[in-house]
Amino acid sequence: MTTTALPTGVVPGTYTIDPAHSTASFTVRHAGISKVRGTVAITSGTVTVGDSFEVSSVTAELDAKSISTGDANRDGHLQSADFFTVEQNPTWSFVSKSVKGAGEEFVVTGDLTINGVTNEVELDTEFTGAAVDAFGNERAAFEAHLEISRKEFGVSWNAALEAGGVLVSDKVKIDLDLSTIKG
User: What's the DSSP call for residue 30?
Assistant: First the structure.
């Protein structure tokens, strides 16, 4: 992918991620036959847009204690030492290293830290639009997607199934919908 100018509508500047209008969600296969979906609250972050992708960056922090799948028992298990040890690792983070793209689609490469373990990941990202909201705030929105191996982040708990296979898939799909405010 070649590096190009920013997509139409993106104005250079520093944008703050708006936690009230942004989501981080995940999907993982359960028992090999169904999917469990959940969310983790984005607590803060910035998107710094330069005159081109090369001088743009992203940072974000998420609250591991906010993990929610709609089942309190499962959420408690995910917060335990079997999975994320949230008492010791309450914050997950992302810090970009590079942004490269063409048009409205680009790749943000950076360090993702989950469970106290940091790995480099690539987020397939799309600029989804810009607008001035009802309060006069300049907003820009982005969607990003990635797939990770939970074992690469030190999350290896599992249970064997009687029919074969395991209870929790290693692959986790992560989707981000970010609404940001300039200034």
Answer: E
Question: Among candidates 13, 26, 41, 44, which has minimal Cα distance to 137?
Answer: 13
Write out residues in the chain with pLDDT < 70, as ranges. Answer: 1-8, 102
Backbone angles phi, psi at 49, to 5 degrees: -100, 120
User: DSSP 3-state assignment of 79?
Assistant: helix
Kindly report the number of other CB atoms within 10 A of residue 88's CB atom: 10
Report the phi/psi class of residue 9: left, alpha or beta, with left for phi > 0 and alpha for psi in -120 to 50. Answer: left
- Are 28 and 172 in contact, with CB atoms under 8 Å apart? yes
Tell me, which fold does domain 13-182 have in CATH? Lipocalin (2.40.128)
Number of other residues whose CB lies within 10 A of the CB of residue 14: 13
Q: Identify which of 126, 124, 141, 123 has the alpha carbon closest to the alpha carbon of residue 182.
A: 141
Is the sign of the CA dihedral 99, 17, 175, 110 positive or negative? positive
CA distance 45 to 62: 9
Quickly list DSSP for 104-136: TEEEEEEEEEETTEEEEEEEEEEEEEEEE-TTS
- 34, burial (CB in 10 Å: exposed 0-12, middle 13-18, buried 19+): exposed
CA distance 168 to 30: 5
pLDDT, residue 113, reads 98
